[in-house]
Amino acid sequence: SANEVLPPRRQADHLMNVYWFYVDPLYPFLDRRKWEQNYANLFAGTPMDTDEVIFVATLNIIFALATQLVESMEPENRDETSDVYFKRAKDLLDLTFWDSGSLELVQYLLLMSQYLQSTSLPHQTWMIVGSAVRVAQSLGLHLPETSALRPTTSQRELLRRIWHGCVLMDRMVSLTHGRPAMISRNLASAVPLPLTSSNAKPDEYGRLTEGSFFVKSVELYEITHRVLLDLYSEPGSRLRSTIHDDRKDEDLAAVMQLDSAMMKWEESLPKFLVLSDADVANNEVSQRQAVILHIRFLHARMLLFRPVVARVCLPPPGFGVGAARPPDSLQSRVMQQCTIYCVEIARSIISLLLKHQAYDGTVGLLPAW
């Protein structure tokens, strides 16, 4: 029964609060109002407006995620306890995929992929994200009309958040594993992005910045995806890590275009997500979001310039000791500047990580990765 896989109510409430504070602002995959109603019904033993097995399995994944962030526990105990919740969730839900999927199943898979990202189980993360994408597509979430035809704004927004959550996780695991993404660029952009705080009123939970962080993350990972396609992929899906002579002009042009896209993205950030803004430090949620976004932005830029660095630092085949020096062209100067800039970005990331790294067992502001 559900009670056998649930902690005491007080502990469960604490873990839920940790989830709403730390995880949901980054990955808003749940409808909080509906979730809290079903959560209350579960503990009260009254009928629930959802599939109870999937709900309890998802709840255990939430407990697993939240346990990793409970500062009162020793880090070793956090891992051990969160693994218990994860195994409970896994045992509750047999993922055979012979049945037709549901929105709740996609939410469960997305949250499970979130949890798995912070473990040493990369293969499982890859497979679960793929499953989430396939179930979402089977429900038609990749079609703009599926969400557009929903009668209420909250339903429409939830579907869009879930679909773009699939896109985001697809891009993340593709980047992490160096493998092709499942969702094409056209498909990823077909569904409108969720509303952000600039064009939506805050709900009763004061949900102002969450929408913006999520949308800006999706936008940034889409640019990063373009970087992988343009600079790291070859026909036949083989990866490359440097700029080839026969494609140098095209690759450098792509670097410039993608760099411009990244700069426009940074300029479009709302004030409460800009790390250098004075007010951000006064709001822990905003500060955490700003730190994570800035680290991701720097990482994306480093990824952009790395093939140029490889080309500058690794001489082309056949370039021996006695070979003539490469010409001092504008192109070679640009590549040298890209290399210097890439090193500066790497140092900025290190400084940022050191600045915000928590050494006292607290959660701190850094992302799980």
Automatic annotation (TrEMBL):
<protein>
    <recommendedName>
        <fullName>Xylanolytic transcriptional activator regulatory domain-containing protein</fullName>
    </recommendedName>
</protein>
<keyword id="KW-0804">Transcription</keyword>
<dbReference type="GO" id="GO:0000435">
    <property type="term" value="P:positive regulation of transcription from RNA polymerase II promoter by galactose"/>
</dbReference>
<dbReference type="GO" id="GO:0006351">
    <property type="term" value="P:DNA-templated transcription"/>
</dbReference>
<dbReference type="InterPro" id="IPR007219">
    <property type="entry name" value="XnlR_reg_dom"/>
</dbReference>
<feature type="domain" description="Xylanolytic transcriptional activator regulatory">
    <location>
        <begin position="125"/>
        <end position="200"/>
    </location>
</feature>
<dbReference type="GO" id="GO:0000978">
    <property type="term" value="F:RNA polymerase II cis-regulatory region sequence-specific DNA binding"/>
</dbReference>
<keyword id="KW-0539">Nucleus</keyword>
<dbReference type="InterPro" id="IPR051127">
    <property type="entry name" value="Fungal_SecMet_Regulators"/>
</dbReference>
<dbReference type="GO" id="GO:0008270">
    <property type="term" value="F:zinc ion binding"/>
</dbReference>
<dbReference type="GO" id="GO:0005634">
    <property type="term" value="C:nucleus"/>
</dbReference>
<dbReference type="Pfam" id="PF04082">
    <property type="entry name" value="Fungal_trans"/>
</dbReference>
<keyword id="KW-0805">Transcription regulation</keyword>
<dbReference type="GO" id="GO:0000981">
    <property type="term" value="F:DNA-binding transcription factor activity, RNA polymerase II-specific"/>
</dbReference>
